[in-house]
Design a protein that fits this description.
The structure is a single chain. By secondary structure, the chain is mostly helical. It has one domain. Helices cover 57% and strands 4% of the residues. It contains 5 helices and 2 strands; from the N terminus they run αββαααα. The protein has helices spanning 3-14, 46-54, 58-69, 76-83, 85-104, and strands at residues 26-27, 43-44. A two-stranded antiparallel ribbon has the order 1-2. α4 packs antiparallel against α5. The longest helix has 20 residues, at 85-104.
């Protein structure tokens, strides 16, 4: 999986507000905290979604977080917990656009 594919997959995972959460990496259907890779996870934060998508691939996860931080951007967990769902999706959109530009050599 490429960085761009992972960014798109993580964004898709939390695009529906009912699949997004704050204050925890992931939650089950009852709202309890679970690990992002748990089969019981149904809602993820911005960082939890990247963990879910990348699994044990720490290199890929590191690249995702690096792209999400962007040029002086707030940390994904700050955006997630302090700015809300729309800001999280906008953060992912900026990261996807930046990664596409990088791949096309226009960044």
């Amino acid at each position: 999986m490429t960085t761009l594919e992972a960014l798109k997959a993580a964004r898709a995972l939390i695009a529906d507000p009912s699949h997004w959460t704050q204050g925890a990496l992931a939650r089950n259907a009852r709202g309890n905290r679970v690990r992002p890779w748990s089969e019981h996870a149904v809602r993820w934060c911005a960082e939890g979604a990247s963990i879910r998508v990348c699994g044990p691939n720490f290199g890929l996860r590191g690249r995702l977080v690096g792209v999400l931080f962007g040029d002086g951007a707030d940390a994904p967990w700050v955006v997630n917990d302090d700015q809300g769902h729309a800001a999280v999706l906008a953060m992912y959109d900026r990261a996807i656009a930046a990664e596409q530009a990088r791949q096309e050599g226009t960044a």
